[in-house]
Q: What sequence folds into this?
């Protein structure tokens, strides 16, 4: 079963769309699309800069390829407009380990060179059950609020660490 069918069956009360943008897609189409969708599943990449146009409380499931370091660029942008981002690192062995394994990938990743290039060019496969579990988190307010509070605490700790070492 493909992702589109799995999501459509799991959430029949929601409109599910499969959209592909290319460099030929007019900018206004990107802006309008991001401004009119509340849950987005997307691979990490420049298109997520359109997160600027999200409505508050929208959610983006940002997927990173295996061995790619977790850049927080788009997460910060998405959170600045009052929306939420759930990162997932495709190389993680389980959803529960995704954050820890993503951070480990960050620590061992060569940020300037061939490794980054090849990680970005590789095909990415995320098992459908993991996507569905991520969507459950995004669409279940209590679970999502708990996840967001943990995220806020982590960012606060990271900020304190940076400020104290400056």
A:
């Amino acid at each position: 079963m493909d992702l589109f069918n799995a999501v459509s069956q799991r959430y029949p009360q929601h409109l599910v769309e499969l959209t592909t943008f290319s460099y030929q897609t007019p900018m206004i189409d990107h802006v309008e699309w991001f401004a009119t969708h509340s849950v987005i599943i997307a691979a990490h990449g420049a298109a997520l800069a359109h997160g600027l146009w999200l409505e508050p409380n929208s959610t983006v499931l940002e997927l990173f390829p295996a061995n790619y370091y977790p850049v927080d660029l788009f997460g910060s942008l998405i959170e600045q407009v009052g929306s939420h981002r759930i990162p997932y690192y495709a190389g993680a062995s389980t959803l529960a380990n995704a954050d820890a394994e993503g951070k480990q990938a960050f620590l061992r990743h060569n940020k300037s060179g061939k490794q980054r290039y090849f990680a970005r060019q590789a095909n990415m496969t995320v098992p459908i059950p993991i996507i569905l579990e991520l969507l459950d988190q995004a669409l279940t307010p209590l679970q999502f609020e708990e996840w967001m509070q943990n995220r806020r605490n982590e960012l606060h700790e990271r900020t304190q660490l940076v400020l104290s070492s400056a």
